[in-house]
Design a protein that fits this description.
By secondary structure, the chain is of the alpha/beta class. The chain contains 14 helices and 13 strands. The chain has a seven-stranded parallel β-sheet, sandwiched between helices. A six-stranded parallel β-sheet has the order 10-9-8-11-12-13.
């Protein structure tokens, strides 16, 4: 079986969501041939996907244009959608040519939609899978624009053309889609190794809480070098940030994988994105979330996170002043209720049935 998987590179969330499904499918089909159509970084993909793949390092779509990890550039995003749909037929034709060259047996999209339209035109079975879709996101921000009706018609038609739209819990409602198939939560599980983590952090004291800073793959950098010292927290950040601070270490220097870090640290600081939310709950780690009340998916993710006792709100202003003095006592009272994560296995079973039939 040759599977082409198209992944939106709007942060790491789509890649984190689809990777457990690909790994589960590979366990069922060891001979699976995988092509990835995405501009996600090869290092991230190799760190998450446990089988060999051919990478078509091009963007299948763009999602949204971001100013930062939390702020959307709405005008640039609207302009990008106008350009894409002004040349819609050519966009679909270009991706159809890619399909003719690769000749996959099945297309899986998380959750680009031009590839779904191209697969439909080529008669190739296709499945969408995601906790959101770009039509609903576009509708939320841009529905009042003059060009919105045509753009939404083309987006919705592409998503409806899929044999199924697999919706892992918790997903946005997507009531307009009649090809929805509900799945359980999808999350990668890490082996909790808190002692090993502390051994790899010589500057962290036993009294400090270890907090992983994970803005979700969107290019961002918080001014941590200006944050106060001795707040009872040791921060783990990307080496790329090049932070000089006694209470900060690079998470790459720990030698632990990312999901192992989530399972081993005391909390994660990040936004309410599907991968971060489900991986925190599945690994029993609190999420210090940065509220994004205008992000439409938050209305689905946040109640689910709160229902599992994993949510602690952090005001965005704290990213500037670094004042987290109340965080340590607040963490002491958090008891995360883990969830089962059958969604990847369920999705793999569905894809396998499609391959057999």
């Amino acid at each position: 079986m040759h599977l082409l998987t198209a992944i939106t590179a709007h942060g790491y969330g789509h890649g984190a969501q689809v990777a457990p499904v690909l790994n589960a499918l590979h366990r069922r089909l060891p001979e699976l041939r995988l092509s990835l159509f995405t501009d996600l970084s090869p290092a991230f993909l190799r760190g998450r996907i446990r089988l060999d793949f051919e990478l078509i390092a091009e963007p299948p779509d763009f999602g949204l244009v971001m100013d930062s990890a939390l702020a959307i550039d709405l005008e640039a995003s609207a302009a990008a959608y106008r350009r894409l749909h002004r040349d819609w037929d050519e966009q679909v034709a270009a991706q159809a040519r890619l399909l003719r060259r690769l000749r996959p047996d099945l297309v899986l999209a998380d959750v680009p939609y031009p590839i779904l339209a191209a697969a439909s035109a080529e008669g190739i079975p296709a499945v969408a899978m995601c906790s959101l879709n770009w039509a609903d996101i576009y509708r939320h921000y841009f529905s009042a624009r003059a060009e919105a009706a045509l753009i939404l018609e083309q987006m919705e038609s592409a998503y409806r053309s899929a044999r199924a739209f697999l919706c892992p819990e918790p997903s946005m409602p997507m009531a307009w889609l009649d090809n929805r198939v509900a799945l359980g939560p999808i999350a990668a599980l890490g082996r909790a190794q808190p002692e090993r983590l502390r051994q790899r952090l010589p500057r962290a004291t036993d009294a400090q809480r270890i907090v992983l800073v994970a803005p979700g793959g969107v290019k961002a950098r918080f001014p941590i070098e200006n944050w106060p010292r001795a707040q009872g927290i040791h921060w783990l950040v990307s080496r790329d940030w090049d932070v000089r601070h006694p209470d900060v270490s690079s998470y790459q220097d720990t030698g632990l994988g990312f999901t192992e870090l989530i399972a081993s640290c005391d909390a994660v600081l990040g936004k309410c994105g599907y991968g971060t939310v489900t991986e925190c709950v599945a690994n029993a780690t609190p999420l210090l979330y940065l509220p994004r009340p205008d992000w439409p998916e938050e209305a689905t993710l946040l109640p689910w996170l709160e229902a599992h006792g994993a949510a602690l709100a952090v005001a965005p202003a704290r990213l500037e002043d670094g004042c987290f003095t109340g965080l340590v006592p607040a963490l002491a009272g958090v008891r995360v209720r883990r969830c089962a994560t059958p969604g990847a296995e369920q999705a793999a079973d569905y894809l396998l049935r499609m391959a057999v039939h």
